[in-house]
Amino acid sequence: MPLTSFSTLTHSSLKNSSYIENGVRDQRRANACPGDWWIRIDADLVDVGQTRAVFEKYRPTHVIHLAAKVGGLYLHMRENLHFLRDNIKINDNVLQTAHDMGVTKVVSCLSSCIFPDKTTYPIDETMIHNGPPHDSNFGYSHAKRMIDVQNRAYFQQYGHRYTAVIPTNVFGPYDNFNIENGHVLSALINKTYKAKKEGTPVNVCGSGAPRRQFIYSLDVGRLIIWVLREYEEIDPIIVSVGEEDEVSIKEAVDMIAQALDFKGKIQFDTTLSDGQMKKTACNSKLRRYLPDFTFTPLKEAIKMTCDWFMTNYDTART
Question: In angstroms, what CA-CA distances link 218 with 3, 20, 97, 135, 214?
Fold first, then answer.
């Protein structure tokens, strides 16, 4: 299905989705169709004027909405209100402007943190609104949940084909590797790399017991392009490795240490919060559509991300 035009939305003042955008970019190059015209729109999407200006400039027919204000666990805990307000503004500006400009399809990116804190496992797409999310990042979670509500409303009122993907814990090249504000895996890569250089222990926040389903950003890119071209539902779809691929933070740290050849001590600071202990997601809906999709093995993906980080350390977001 050739697209008249395609836009990947990122947020110029936040730049927290460039690792997913990189995955989309690499995969669309490998799977381009004649007639495709791909654009990366980078603007302050909290500002409705700037949002409208970039839409008017490029007039996309299809949009992948990756823009968000995001951060690590402890930043979310400190600034829930900021995450709520900024993300509500971004999402409303993007979807309403897409409507005003006649965009054919929008694929937004949600997060597995939107699911209820108190729930049964594994979680699936029908359970998003069954209870409040975890207290640690409730602002971001509620703002992201509202995209699902907005998509349904735009379909009900206007028949628009706006939908969303729900990735689990994404990581990969171009991520935010900042130790204080980055996502858990990328922050730990940076922390372990510095500990190796300085000859110090790696200090991991929390017990290492929480379990997560990590997914490589290039795999997410492949799946987002499939959703844009082929997936016709308004209901969101979880894009994740299987339940059997869930690992503990401790196991992930051990893989990072191996990838970076770190031989020092790894310490777990149990005085700090673990956050949500688990949020195991079911990918059975994805598997019904794509039974043969192959995910990059976690150990291999961590090694490639560590190699990229070391090669690009001077320009990486640290």
Answer: 21, 7, 28, 30, 12
